[in-house]
Amino acid sequence: MDKPVTLETPGGADKDAPLKEDIRLLGRLLGDVLRDQEGDTVFDVVETIRQTAVRFRRDADPVAGEELTTLLHKLSRNQTISVVRAFSYFSHLANIAEDQHHNRRRRAHALAGSRPREGSVGHALGKLRDAGVDRNTVETFLRNALIAPVLTAHPTEVQRKSILDAEHDIARLLAERDLPLTPKEQVRNLQLLQARIATLWQTRMLRYTKLTVADEIENALSYYRITFLRELPALYDDIEDEIGAHYHGSKPQLGDAAYVQMGSWIGGDRDGNPNVNADTMRHATMRHATTILDFYLDEVHALGAELSTSTLMVDITPAMQTLAARSTDASEHRADEPYRRALIGMYARLAASARVLGATNILRKEVGHAEPYADAAEFAADLDVVAESLKLNHGAMLIVPRLAGLMRAAHIFGFHLASLDMRQTSDVHERVLAELFEKAQVEADYAALPEEAKVRLLLAELAQPRPLYSPYETYTDETQSELAIVRAAREIRQRYGTRAIRNYIISHTEAVSDLLEVLLLLKETGLVRSSAGIADVMVIPLFETIPDLQRAGDIMEAWMALPPVTRIVHNQGRLQEVMLGYSDSNKDGGFLTSNWELYQAELKLVDVFERAGVKLRLFHGRGGTVGRGGGPSYQAILAQPPGTVNGQIRLTEQGEIIASKFSNPEIGRRNLELLVAATLEASLMPHAAEGAQARQLAVFEGVMAQLSQRAYTAYRDLVYETPGFTDYFFAATPIAEIAELNLGSRPASRKSTRRIEDLRAIPWGFSWGQCRLLLPGWYGFGSAVAGWLGEGADGERLATLQAMFREWPFFATLLSNMDMVLAKTDLAIASRYAGLVPDEALRERIFKRIAAEHCETLRQLEAVTGAKERLATNPLLARSIQNRFAYLDPLNHLQVELIHRHRAMARKAGEGGDMDPRVHRGIHLSINGVAAGLRNTG
């Protein structure tokens, strides 16, 4: 008789019973697959490790800790791989079950007819209506707004597309179990679930070759097929329904509005990635166009099959008659079916367009030859002809099933799918301009000029009609590559439309000259015509470090005051975008200071832009972790200072967060809706900050400034001023192993050094997540609050902090995000990673400091919020995190054991020994599993 399978989660409230059942089912099926594929011995080992890890966590039992160490040390290398895979896949399956439960709860909420949930567009519209915001204001807002999630590829993306595809199938089958199924259908469903889990088990989780930029592009495009292409148009439709319902009128007609648009950095982001060039930009935009045109071709083909309407039954408009007459279809069988004939002709034109734009494999051959569409607007106009004819001839209901979504998609995605941003660091621009100036005999040593002289020279060159580049000179590879990029941008815009590329982002913007340099480079290829005051591509500064954020307002004030720039900004619709970097500012100054300096920079920018009469659009470079600006997007947008949203917002979606948010269509639509709802509220809700409220806010901001300075000192003292901290970090986290993992096309460090200053912020945060310290998301808060409170008396200062938490969204969101990080932090697990530091004195000294700050942070957080338990206000998330620990903890313990083995072998290899690739593979598998278990660690 089979042994009972116990890969299941304990506890939970009644309303989570279906979630427990799903996790129990998936755990049982995974256990069955494990036993079938690996045998009873491995299954028993997995269970023993799990139970021992639970005892270690629950009882802080040192005996359990010793037993666990012995168990792990005794594992053979092959067993270790199997055990790591088992726990990793359980984390993946638990994520699927949770996503399904979120969808289930939302449907139940809707069926119950309850009030719209917070974060929904319905909830936002209700608040706006109650606050006196009228319907016309809302509709005007949506016609002019731009809300743009921007997908980026970063080295914490741990999912292979093959894994994502299998998990998508498992999610679909799990959702199917909520439907009424016959006994036979239930058995079939179970068989298919087990088959898909077996497929997962037999699929390689990791990449054995380095991920290329082309691979990253394809990975991102898979989310369009899963979610964006259908869910984004559907969301637009939902929003129009909600406006009609909340303002008691007919559904508005906003068909040509495109207030949510997609963006991408993948293939255009060169900062720190030598693998991105003009060819990757061309490839990215070609694949974007091919993806959206494939979608249009499928939809038009399906629409042709559905619209069998005959002129023997109903009339059509003259425009529809003309469209049908232009068709390439001459079949007598469809002589009375104008819609089919028209759509066959439209299909032929789309196919021709696809070939022109780079498609090489169109699955269905078109009927006859047709000229390609000049642009997406022509295609959209033909769809409008079809819709108008249906509407005027008793066919309005025929628009709803497919045509409405296709029309909406044409406005949202065009032929370009997503806008591709260009990004490069300011140092590269300076080197390129220095060479161009030298070769043109304009300036021998541009880089050595003071800032004022640089600005004068750049402005003078912008006014010159001639280019600096000469085809008769020889330039460095770097200069040739950078010029090829801007030439490619011009070609791409001409070929795919002006929305295909419209932004150039400058990393490490430190001065006005950094912006002017890019303006001049764009002028070299005609993308800037300064005499006419026209820039086809917007030049966007990225302020990243703490000093950069502090200078941002002054730089933008000086930039927009320059006469040629003033004209350009005017011709951009008096709009200028500014990007703020969360990752580097956090690595530079710590969690509290980063958040505060970002807030301060935004306030200063609002003031500068208001005085200049220019609309500000902020681009938030948020990462997955709280330490990199992550956390719930809805709360983050609402916590922005007044005047910083105003219907214009872009934000990055990075790493494994893309999979977490958008690999399930329903979850994806919900995340897109959250962005729209938060932008509506943040932009249109009245802000009352007068009199006493304004004075109170000023007090709160003054307190925050003092806390920030103290936290900055504590963080910098540990990370940058403590002797040996770098050695501790590289030994006590898997940063070296992460750098070796084939996660992305971008190197983990900007330079080949062990300096933390040169390490990219993404692997910095990812490493702290893996060892369960998540230090960038909380360090410095405890000592800052304790020090500030210590200078006061009689609890008055604590009362001020408590008021800040209750009444200031910025501070409340900051503490909420830190609360989530602390719920995932585990000092006992982290202590095992600290054991990897060979220098015992260094280990004790630094870990003791971190542990003391952690204890103080918990103590002060509890004092301010009044909550003794983590995530007291979010019990669903608290249960989710608790349920994962039984499977997550063993992965951490296994990772420590594997790193210990790997580094020991590396030392012996230096003396002539051999390395075992299985150990290396096991570490990388554990990294994948921990990232999946924590969900937002990148």
UniProtKB/TrEMBL annotation:
<feature type="active site">
    <location>
        <position position="587"/>
    </location>
</feature>
<comment type="function">
    <text>Forms oxaloacetate, a four-carbon dicarboxylic acid source for the tricarboxylic acid cycle.</text>
</comment>
<feature type="active site">
    <location>
        <position position="154"/>
    </location>
</feature>
<dbReference type="InterPro" id="IPR021135">
    <property type="entry name" value="PEP_COase"/>
</dbReference>
<keyword id="KW-0456">Lyase</keyword>
<dbReference type="InterPro" id="IPR022805">
    <property type="entry name" value="PEP_COase_bac/pln-type"/>
</dbReference>
<dbReference type="Pfam" id="PF00311">
    <property type="entry name" value="PEPcase"/>
</dbReference>
<dbReference type="InterPro" id="IPR033129">
    <property type="entry name" value="PEPCASE_His_AS"/>
</dbReference>
<dbReference type="GO" id="GO:0008964">
    <property type="term" value="F:phosphoenolpyruvate carboxylase activity"/>
</dbReference>
<protein>
    <recommendedName>
        <fullName>Phosphoenolpyruvate carboxylase</fullName>
        <ecNumber>4.1.1.31</ecNumber>
    </recommendedName>
</protein>
<dbReference type="InterPro" id="IPR018129">
    <property type="entry name" value="PEP_COase_Lys_AS"/>
</dbReference>
<keyword id="KW-0120">Carbon dioxide fixation</keyword>
<comment type="subunit">
    <text>Homotetramer.</text>
</comment>
<keyword id="KW-0460">Magnesium</keyword>
<comment type="similarity">
    <text>Belongs to the PEPCase type 1 family.</text>
</comment>
<dbReference type="InterPro" id="IPR015813">
    <property type="entry name" value="Pyrv/PenolPyrv_kinase-like_dom"/>
</dbReference>
